[in-house]
Write a structure and sequence with these properties.
Blueprint lengths: L5 E3 L1 H8 L5 E7 L5 H12 L3 E5 L1 H8 L6 E5 L7 H11 L4 E6 L4 H13 L4 E5 L8 H6 L9 E4 L2 H10 L3 E5 L16 E6 L15 E3 L12 H18 L1
Parallel strand pairs: 2-3, 5-6, 5-9, 6-7, 8-9, 8-10
Antiparallel strand pairs: 1-4, 2-4
Helix pairs in contact: 1-2, 5-8
Length: about 250
């Protein structure tokens, strides 16, 4: 993380919360409290910002200075409300395309997915407020700037986003190597949301039953899984292929 991505100290963060600065995540030291920290928590909660309670060692590692029990990551982008982007997209396109990232935590994987998503015409990327990679300068760099060209939506719960998308007539397809169905055997030329799971655990078990389809990529070697950004690229280009043939 670059120093320019980070601010710390009680008063700088209070000022940031009262200004037009967009904060991606706030870190607050565990087992500490003060009226000013309570004010930060209250202001951040009103804005729907993610608060992470961490040990003092984490803040010491981030700041290398007197953090006063609080630090925050500045977001280089403005987030877009999910309902706004879905409504706009469905009004303008016959076949919408969204990606849901279920707790992708590696910044470089996130940036690589954003870059491929922008190149394949994805309409928005949906991420949870907790458990996802921070949107930092490293994410911007890895995306080759594509992150500025595609809406990013943060939601409280992935499940609620899936329910909303399905109610809007959008088919949900989960990418999982555990599926017996091949991605090339699924119809992908309609409005879709592709769900990609985390690097270590894949799609959350409680999310899988909610999806309309589950699909795997054929793996012909000895290794039984792909890097998530590579798998996402393969899924997206199969969608492009099918839609170009339609």
């Amino acid at each position: 993380m670059k120093k320019t991505d980070l601010i710390f100290g009680i008063y700088p963060i209070i000022e940031a919360l009262s200004s037009e600065v967009h904060l991606d995540k706030i870190y607050i030291q565990k087992d500490t409290s003060s009226s000013k920290l309570d004010q930060i928590i209250d202001d951040a909660s009103k804005k729907g910002l993610q608060i992470n309670y961490v040990p003092s060692q984490k803040l010491d590692q981030l700041t290398k200075s007197n953090h006063q029990g609080v630090a925050a990551i500045i977001s280089p982008i403005t987030l877009t409300p999910l309902e706004e982007v879905v409504e706009k997209t469905l009004n303008n396109k016959s076949a919408a395309l969204f990606i849901i990232l279920d707790q992708i935590s590696d910044v470089r994987n996130f940036g690589a997915i954003v870059r491929t998503a922008e190149c394949t015409g994805v309409d928005a990327i949906i991420i949870p407020k907790t458990g996802s990679a921070p949107i930092t300068g490293d994410a911007v760099k890895t995306s080759a700037g594509a992150i500025f060209n595609i809406p990013i939506c943060k939601v409280d719960h992935i499940k609620d986003a899936i329910y909303y998308l399905k109610a809007s007539g959008i088919k949900t397809v989960g990418a999982t190597e555990k599926s017996s169905k091949n991605i090339y055997d699924i119809k992908l030329d309609e409005s879709l949301a592709i769900i990609m799971g985390s690097e270590g655990k894949g799609i959350t078990k409680s999310v899988l039953p909610l999806l309309d389809e589950q699909a795997a990529l054929p793996l012909l070697g000895e290794i039984n899984s792909l890097n998530v950004s590579v798998a996402c690229g393969a899924f997206l280009y199969e969608i492009v292929r099918q839609r170009n043939l339609a």
